[in-house]
Design brief:
alpha/beta; Rossmann fold
């Protein structure tokens, strides 16, 4: 059952609704970390850019523990919620890795395909690479929003393939039920979020159309007529990634059906006033009896906001460290 944490999390008094709690930190919260970038090549000929932050400046004293964090749709490793989590863990002895999904690092990816809610294979490759390169023996995977979907998919889709080094997972502001969460952003007062995503994605589609002028799917003609996710995903996401249509993509990409398979301690934090989440995102469905899962539902927090009154760190960063510290003691 969900655990109410309304008595534990309090936003500043002036952040009076979910929109403010979502938008303010996105625009104004800055958490600086000292990243070192690495580009890795993928088996399909594409690349990923990984941003590393180390607990120690001395390579000879490198931590054997790593926290890997995945950003949300059209985010990147510099977003406040990523750098905030990296700082929290590097301050506590873990190395931190903020990786960028394809096309999100500042340079467009090579292949016609992009990234999406239903494909955790790049995350799987990143974790494998980290283990093989540095020999980490304790890894925590964290994800926000779409990155939360990827994190839960990574944990629940092929649990038998998880490296033993992966000890725990944390996900926040996750559209656990993707079809209804898409519809949520069609509602009055929320459509501007969707429009912003459509505009950002359009920049990349237009760049890809120049890279692949003979690819009919990547044709950007009349892109301005696209006004919602269903239109975008029907025209681009579904055909580029092997789905019959947007509805099939949404159904497949929902993380909720995979939760029952998760066999690592996993914390999910959702805010009731998150403008992106539909009601089905606040329960565990047929995973309600999975003792590996903890769902914490806060009254406030917005979407990947969770700014705490009187603190420089957000609530999810605080809870993530508490959770991992507790799991490590078991």
């Amino acid at each position: 059952m969900p655990i109410s944490t309304t008595d534990k999390f309090r936003p500043p008094f002036w952040q009076f609704n979910g929109h403010v709690q979502t938008i303010f930190p996105s625009l104004f919260r800055k958490v600086l970390v000292d990243y070192r970038r690495e580009r890795i090549e993928l088996p399909d000929g594409d690349f990923l850019d990984l941003d590393w932050a180390y607990a120690s400046r001395n390579p000879a004293e490198r931590s054997k523990k790593l926290m890997v964090v995945t950003h949300g749709l059209e985010g990147d490793s510099t977003r406040h919620y990523v750098t905030g989590m990296v700082k929290k863990f590097t301050d506590n002895g873990y190395d931190g890795l903020g990786w960028n999904c394809r096309s999100c690092s500042g340079e467009i990816n090579r292949l016609p395909r992009f990234y999406h809610h239903g494909d955790a294979e790049d995350l799987r490759f990143v974790v494998k690479h980290a283990i093989e390169k540095f020999g980490y023996n304790e890894i925590v995977v964290v994800g926000y929003s779409m990155g939360g979907s990827l994190t839960l998919r990574y944990l629940g889709e092929k649990p038998e393939l998880l490296p033993t080094e992966v000890k725990a997972g944390i996900a926040a502001s996750v559209p656990l039920d993707l079809p209804t969460s898409v519809i949520e952003l069609y509602k009055r007062g929320k459509r501007f979020y969707m429009k912003r995503f459509i505009n950002k994605l359009g920049v990349k589609i237009k760049e890809k159309s120049l890279m692949y002028p003979d690819n009919e799917i990547l044709n950007a003609v009349e892109y301005e007529k696209i006004t919602n996710f269903h239109q975008f995903d029907s025209r681009y996401t579904a055909p580029l990634h092997g789905f019959e249509g947007a509805d099939q993509f949404y159904e497949f990409s929902s993380a909720k059906p995979l939760l029952k398979n998760i066999n690592r301690p996993t914390l999910i934090v959702q805010a009731l006033n998150d403008p992106f989440l539909s009601p089905p995102c606040f329960d565990l469905g047929d995973a309600k009896n999975n003792t590996n899962l903890i769902l914490e539902v806060t009254e406030k927090g917005g979407h990947v906001g969770f700014i705490q009154a009187g603190s420089t760190e957000n609530y999810v960063e605080k809870r993530a460290w508490e959770f991992v510290d507790q799991v490590s003691d078991l």
